[in-house]
Design brief:
four-stranded antiparallel sheet; about 20% strand; DNA-binding
DNA sequence: CCTGAAACCTGTCTGC
DNA sequence: TGCAGACAGGTTTCAG
């Protein structure tokens, strides 16, 4: 479900409210309850529950696809939504969502619920967030992320460009949807070897990545099924999920293939296949 | 270093 | 209608 834009929209809603989601910044946690033990990656579920009471959520941020809760005393909660995770703020009194895996009860009577049908999502509660986030590549929307940085990350890599865009060590936050959209916008075939890209092509890819991610955020993400009323980007996808349909740019039929075990959508005319 | 397969899970949709 | 199979926005681990 969530890639960088979706996680960013959730982080903003939790930080400052809006779109019906109430902010949790500044809230104090009364208790934590783990309903599916494997949801907690660190520490043990029992320790997780006993460490929460009394802690304040000082701020909310994002790093790659990780949601980051800054707590007092140097503690951090890191949340990865993986495929189907979702965060909901609701009154303590009402019924939990169907796939609630963990929740935090706040002093003010609200409850932050982690709902996750497929159970892939993970939480960490730690004083050493770098141990979890340290391997991540640069933030694509950070001013420090320039075409030169992207070129350096791809230098000497013979893997297919699509696979590298999905590799969080190369670049943090891009997932299957935005990778396909960016490659189409840049006119690059997903099977191109990274090392074969020219400087101009890397710059085009850099521009395309930033554009699709920013547009995703501006439209509140691609998904439609969580707390904030988002998801408008879904109507703006140019290749993802459109195989068999007509390319808006050139009229050719969008095709689909498998790259790095992921469905990959592209336009055979806009994104010419490498000679190789 | 690179690729592919499998595993972790549940829900939904498609085709027969 | 029923049921098998494919597929899903992610990541880790392992084999070759």
């Amino acid at each position: 479900m969530p890639e960088l834009p979706e996680v960013e929209v959730i982080a903003r809603a939790l930080r400052q409210g809006g779109r019906g989601a109430s902010a949790i910044r500044g809230a104090r946690v009364r208790a934590a309850r783990v309903l599916w033990p494997r949801t907690v990656a660190e520490p043990t579920p029992a320790a997780f529950q006993s460490l929460w009471p009394g802690r304040t959520i000082v701020d909310v941020g994002r790093r790659g696809k990780f949601l980051r809760l800054y707590l007092d005393d140097g503690w951090h909660a890191l949340v990865h939504l993986r495929m189907s995770g979702d965060l909901v703020v609701q009154p303590t009194g009402i019924a939990l969502p169907r796939h609630a895996r963990l929740y935090l009860d706040l002093d003010d009577g609200r409850r932050l619920v982690f709902n996750d049908p497929r159970k892939f999502g993970r939480w960490w509660l730690t004083r050493d967030p770098a141990a979890v986030l340290g391997h991540l590549g640069p933030e694509p929307l950070d001013p420090a992320f320039t075409p030169a940085v992207l070129a350096q990350r791809l230098r000497g890599r013979r893997a297919r460009i699509k696979a590298l865009l999905l590799d969080q060590r190369v670049l943090a936050g891009v997932g299957n949807i935005y990778a396909d959209e960016a490659l189409h916008r840049a006119g690059l075939h997903p099977l191109r070897r990274a090392a074969s890209l020219t400087a101009a092509e890397i710059t085009a890819l850099w521009r395309a990545l930033r554009a699709v991610l920013q547009e995703g955020i501006a439209r509140n993400g691609t998904s439609i099924d969580w707390m904030y009323q988002g998801g408008a980007y879904q109507q703006h996808l140019r290749v993802y999920g459109r195989h068999g349909q007509v390319c808006y740019t050139c009229g050719e039929r969008i095709q689909r293939l498998r790259v790095a075990q992921r469905s990959t959508h592209f336009c055979p005319r806009c994104q010419p296949r490498p000679a190789e």
